[in-house]
Amino acid sequence: MHVFGASQGESIVLKLPTGGWGVVDCYASSLQDPAQNATHRFLVEQGAEELEFLCLTHPHEDHYRGMSRLLEDFRVRLFWRPAAMSGQRLKWLLKAARIDALRSGADRVVEDADELERLFRLVKESRSRRNDPLIPRNAGLGTQLFPVRLDPAAHFRIWALAPSGNQADRYEERLGKCFDADGRIVDRLPYSEHNIVSMAILLEFGETRLILGGDVVTPGWVDVLNEFGAGRLSAHAVKVSHHGSTNGYCDGLWSAFGENGKPVAVVTSFRRSRLPQRAALEHIREFASRVATPCLPAVSREELPVPLSINAPVRSRKALRDTFSAWSDSQPCPTGRYSLTFDDKGRCVDQQMTDSAGQIPL
Amino acid sequence: MSPTSAIVRRQRWRDRSWDDILYQFHSPSAAGSPPSIDDAKDIYMDARRLQGKERVHLNWGRTLQAEKTLFEAPSKGRVCVLRLPSHCGHCWSGSGIVGWSGIEHSPDAIEDAMHDVSGKGLTGSVVCLYDLRGSIRRTGQLRTQPLSSASTETVLETFEGFVDQVDAGIAFVTLTSPDGETIRGEYAAEELASLGIFERRRFVCKTLEAGGSVRVHLEAVPDREVTPEKEAAFDREIDELLADDQLDGEY
Asked: Exposure check for chain A: N or C terminus, fewer CB within 10 A?
């Protein structure tokens, strides 16, 4: 399990026991320069030419930017997306993203909307290719995603833990309210509400269990506990949900993860929203053997002072700091990688990391 | 000035163009008289009253008047008030009202008017009200001061702002300087919304200095118009793109 992360965004590359590759989410700081797409670069370096699966956990740009490039440059066999992101709901979503981008006029919003649309255009094209067409799959709580054909005896399986039907319905309802009967946009879906529909997945390899939490938030985890069952959630490693936000878990979740031994917790940053949060990390630490991150600088707990340069009058910066609790974010954190290798007995047999990765001091 | 006389004056100005108003205001010797400070006060009070009754669209920029804030509704403007800092002869904490017009104002027309103003070496904001029917009632006290004693504000820095996300009432914002420096911060989302600044939207952030103190001024960047035709065209594109994308009932 290779977890990539920088100041924001995350991507998880999985080297499967079957020998193939899988990718869950993607983030590239630049859509034009493949060198800025750490996931793409890593896969090329590893000699990957095709992906068994590509998974979009939810429609936030810090989880899909650069994903279209993967579809362009690698043959993807399976594409997983959350329930409530197909058919009419997907039309609403793409339309809302595009119209909002046009109204906003902000370059970054326009670029993100374009990328989301490009992603689904490429999915469509890949579905219609003659040889070995891509198979899309909508995932909800309890969906077996891999292998494609149900095989209870399979030594390696992947399940969707979220979204639950409740959350998918909730998302559809919220999204639907943004449109009138004629399909015209009458309201905007708050940005954070896309987390409602986030996927989480469980990988089972023999006795080894890994959980990738996407950006699932509290109500979604409550459903997982109730419907999937706490007893089936023990894990050896967990990609922490929602970048270590206090709304990325619910009561009893982490104790369920740690039921049969403390898992390794890996958290990615979402620096602009000050995630991870210390309270969440402290909670997780109780149940985890260690809390690590692919990019330590991005989760630094030091309050960064606003630099006082010749071109930035001290008085101005002080006013910004007072008004916004402002901090400087001009030094981009390089994308780091935190990699864990497990055998099929639940043992972590190797751990590798880039210079910027490491255990979060608490 | 009585409320009645304010209405009369407003009607008298109704059909004048922006150029007329600006010219008239800045050239008191021209035909007609510029609005007095009392006129301006009345308009300002109108704005506050209408804002209180939610009859003013809060969707296009803002002006800050000491503790008071006004907003613009350029698309349905019936009466417009142009406020300029320290150039009107009568200043309220550094701003003043120039005049009003009954013409219908598109966002472009407003921007043109602003350009006219800035072309005269001035900067300011437009407050555009619509539906001024009803009685006028004074609801507050305004501080007035002559131009000679008006404090002038110096812009220390200007940033392009963007509301990245709103979460639990907190707006996470990014400020980008002209040379690309990135500053992150937080602000009360409700307060930003009251300035017409919403999630995933841009704004302009200035630090202004006057009399030794520095304040932060925020101003929404107006939404760009998306015509029904453009929306319909996009509907067709999406329909085509997702024609065979059906829900496969996985949950």
From this structure: C
Residue ranges of domains in chain A: 2-323+335-359
SS3 of chain A: helix, strand, coil, percent, to 5 = 35, 25, 40
- A124 neighbors A134 (Cβ within 8 angstroms): no
Residue A95 near chain B (CB below 8 Å): yes
**A86: nearest CA in chain B?**
B247
Q: Which fold has domain A2-323+335-359?
A: Metallo-beta-lactamase; Chain A (3.60.15)
- Indicate yes or no: CB of A87 within 8 angstroms of CB of B202: no
Query: What does the pLDDT read at residue B7?
Result: 33
Residue closest to A228 by CA, chosen among A208, A257, A206, A207: A257
A316 and B CB contact within 8 Å: yes
Residue ranges of chain A whose pLDDT lies below 70: 300-311
Which pairing describes strands A135-139 and A75-82: parallel, antiparallel, or unpaired?
parallel
| Spatial separation of the C-alpha atoms in residues A43 and B223, rounded to whole Å | 40
**Among residues A103, A104, A323, which one has the least CA distance to residue B157?**
A323
Contact A103 B247 (CB under 8 A): no
Question: What is the tens place of the pLDDT at every residue in A195-245?
Answer: 999 999 999 999 999 999 999 999 999 999 999 989 899 999 999 999 999
Residue (of B103, B117, B137) closest to B3 by Cα position: B137
Q: CATH says B154-220 is which class?
A: mainly beta
Identify the pLDDT of residue A137: 92
Q: Are A338 and A266 in contact (CB under 8 A)?
A: yes
